[in-house]
Amino acid sequence: MLMNMKQLLRVANENNFAIPAFNISDYSMFNGIMDISEEANAPVIIAIHPDELKHIGTDMLVSIREKALKSKLPVCIHLDHGDSIEQIQLAIQNGFTSVMIDGSSLSFMDNVALCKRVVALVEGIDVSVEGELGTIGSTDAEAEAGADQIIYTDPADAQKFVERTGVDTLAIAIGTSHGIYPPDFVPELKLDLLKEIKEKVNIPLVLHGGSDNSDVEIGASVTLGINKINISSDIKVAYYEKMREVLQDKGLREPNTIQPPCMEAMKKIALHKINLFQTAGKADLYY
């Protein structure tokens, strides 16, 4: 059951849970995420970053859409961190049902103007728009792009931003970073700031950089109003750590031998997130 983000997160917002947006970089990862989501009866967002889309190619979107359409689950196919009109157009042309336009590094007014262009671009078609206000950090070269310094989202600015742009969902900055945190760094989410933003903004809120944060803080963010949490590094670390282990056997060469245990390792992490975000069993709310 294919949906856009506005449709998917409306239910999450009304019922106080969050939906994981799992970034996938190949087809076995996609299949593993779909399998574990179906086992948990959990709605799911398949997130693909422009760099990931360049890697897998747009032709794979035909299969992703087909599987989503046939699934009993509510599924959204989302462009993660698009930063140009050209990337947004490419995503729309290839079947994404949701796009993020990330103007967070721009001035407030330029960010508003860019988001308004994308909202106008999708008018009349079944595609929703996510914007971002404030900046997310980045931990290393392998992580998604982020800012050198986190700029926290101002609640009053968030209200103005939503009113002026017409975006369907808003990604906010409350202290997370993309990637895996260094051993000597302990992130701390500003949950009081989240409460203030939630009081000002009437659309679903999004948390980027959801990997590698403490379960206690992430769980609290869900109860306080976050409805979508992006997970990329955690599932990829599990997938490739297992692959490194499997490939110690030099005799293995077939993907159908190598990849299944990697998928299982990834699925364990994904299921933990699904339960933490209170998403398990929530697919029933969409019927």
Describe what is shown at a glance.
By secondary structure, the protein is an alpha/beta fold.
What is the CA-based Rg, rounded?
18 Å
Number of helices, counting only DSSP H or I runs of 4 residues or more = 11
**Gap between N and C termini:** 10 Å
Total beta strand runs: 10
Please trace the helix and strand order, writing H or E for each element: HEHEHHEHEHEEHEEHEHEHH
Helix-and-strand structural type: alpha/beta
List the helices and strands and how they pair.
Blueprint: H1 5-15, E1 19-23, H2 27-40, E2 44-48, H3 50-56, H4 60-70, E3 75-82, H5 85-93, E4 98-101, H6 108-121, E5 128-133, E6 137-138, H7 155-165, E7 169-172, E8 177-178, H8 191-200, E9 205-207, H9 215-223, E10 226-231, H10 233-246, H11 255-276
Parallel strand pairs: 1-2, 1-10, 2-3, 3-4, 4-5, 5-7, 6-8, 7-9, 9-10
